[in-house]
Design a protein that fits this description.
By secondary structure, the chain is an alpha+beta fold. Helix content is 31%, strand content 25%. It has one domain: tRNA-splicing ligase RtcB. The two termini are 38 Å apart.
């Protein structure tokens, strides 16, 4: 496959339109040259080329340097479709709708609380339910579930689960008005009813970090970050509710494709026209699932704040939200296509919004430096805070990477990685682990993922995001 690559820049590669007969646009890959052998290990490029066949796709389909094989779209993919003539594809969003990252920041520095990190990890583990099928502290009626789906974090704020100003630091303020609870099946509602405020399993986590290094003083000051500061990451999404919404609509769209005359090289790319009744229904259900996911991270924030006060007391100050970003979502945005401003449907699957300084959707406090972009590493490795750059609007529909990206399948990781040795290794690094599943620990080991520093270096060199701060883990809480 790499023999077809055309090098656009040191870190941008293109597979030309015409490489396959069905391609409507070229395919692009953001990667350094030494990362190319990694991306050819699985079906990532094969899936990326298939994405170019979507009706109404604009400019090119692309994957970020953390890309790996997924369902339909590869994970790490970005694709924009025409709002009038294009399609919407659940495979371009994924099963965990609005899986995303939230970063909380404190006023404390690591040296002040070093001896209480293990206690804090245990308290967070107690307060934030984790693992497959675990129920949360909040149980909702049908009427309240409808409000969560329709209003997202606005519901959380009106019910006492948010502090003043929280919503200003969440992408879209934690609420998509395109949501309609009526488009979400009863089965999906029932799966999500008791899951607000829960982490789940897999690669979801709460991680306690210390700011190790500042790369951009101006942006860090704007974000409220400084060296040795104590921060907390939350990574989770829409839980069983979002998974059921994806399942429901993928099944429907597979059967509807012939009706709309849609011919695709892979049935996993199932889609319908955005303007169709089914396209509008899915977009509303996806938006409702996104609202649920933002509310889920908001309730986890509420739980962590309780745990925080139990360990450090009220005098330790507030845990504030630095930012919250989605990385499995489709959104209507304005972008320049062939020098013409157009509203398009941007699919981001394992990719993060990366709007630059001056963009009207960037939180006012950060608008002079660009939108915060949160890039978690793998357990035991560094994570990064980036800021969006102007190049993202020119090259990637305002998008960048979302993490380090898997190297091994979960099955391969379980076979290769010795969990007891991993725990010893992490302990030597000063990382406290709280988990209910040793199997899950092996699946998320650092060796199962790409080098996150290589990934962020690529997006910085491409000019779509810049490094602001490096975070190192001191405690990891998982299901």
């Amino acid at each position: 496959m790499t023999e077809n690559f055309k090098q656009i820049s040191p870190v941008i590669w293109e597979i030309p339109q015409g490489t396959k007969d069905f391609m409507n646009v070229p395919a692009r890959l953001f990667a350094s040259e030494d990362m190319l052998p990694i991306v050819t290990r699985d079906r990532t490029l094969h899936q990326l080329i298939n994405v170019t066949s979507l009706p109404g796709i604009l400019s090119y389909a692309m994957v970020m340097p953390d890309a790996h094989e997924g369902y339909g779209f590869p994970i790490g993919a970005v694709a924009a479709t025409d709002l009038n003539d294009g399609v919407i594809s659940p495979g371009g969003i994924g099963y965990d709708i609005n899986c995303g990252i939230r970063l909380l920041k404190s006023n404390l520095i690591f040296d002040e609380i070093r001896d209480r990190i293990e206690r804090l990890a245990g308290e967070i583990y107690k307060y934030v339910p984790s693992g497959v099928g675990k129920s949360g502290r909040v149980q909702l009626s049908n009427a309240e579930m409808e409000k969560v789906l329709n209003y997202g974090c606005k519901w959380a704020e009106s019910n006492g689960y948010a502090e003043e100003g929280d919503l200003n630091y969440i992408e879209s303020e934690g609420y998509l008005e395109s949501a309609d609870a009526k488009t979400v099946s009863r089965g999906a509602v029932d799966r999500g009813r008791d899951q607000l405020g829960t982490m789940g399993a897999g690669n979801h986590f709460v991680e306690v970090n210390v700011v190790k290094k500042i790369y951009d003083e101006e942006a860090a000051a704007s974000f409220g970050l400084k060296e040795n500061q104590f921060v907390i990451q939350i990574h989770t999404g829409s839980r069983g509710l979002g998974h059921q919404v994806a399942t429901d609509y993928i099944k429907q769209m597979i059967s509807l494709a012939p009706h709309y005359g849609i011919n695709l090289p892979d049935r996993e790319l199932s889609c319908v026209p955005i303007s169709s009744p089914e396209g509008q229904q899915y977009f509303s259900a996806m938006s409702a699932s996104a609202n649920f996911a933002w509310t889920n991270r908001q309730l986890i924030t509420w739980e962590i704040r309780d745990a925080w006060r139990n360990i450090f007391g009220k005098s330790s100050g507030k845990l504030e939200i630095l930012y919250d970003v989605a990385h499995n979502i489709a959104k209507i945005e304005e972008h320049s296509v062939n020098a013409e401003k157009r509203k398009v449907m941007v699919h981001r699957k394992g990719a993060t919004r990366s709007f630059p300084a001056g963009h009207p959707e960037v939180t006012a406090e950060y608008r002079s430096v660009g939108q915060p972009v949160l890039i978690p590493g793998s357990m035991g490795t560094a994570s990064y805070v980036l800021a969006g750059l102007r190049g993202s609007m020119e090259l990637s529909f305002g998008s960048t990477c979302h993490g380090s990206g898997r190297l091994m399948s979960r099955t391969a990781a379980r076979k290769k990685i010795n969990v007891e040795e991993l725990k010893v290794e992490l302990n030597k690094k000063g990382v406290h682990i709280q988990t209910g599943s040793l199997k899950g620990l092996a699946e998320e080991a650092p060796d199962a993922y790409k080098d996150v520093e290589m990934v962020v270096n690529v997006v910085e060199e491409a000019g779509i995001a810049k490094k602001v701060a490096q975070l190192i883990p001191v405690a990891v809480i998982k299901g």
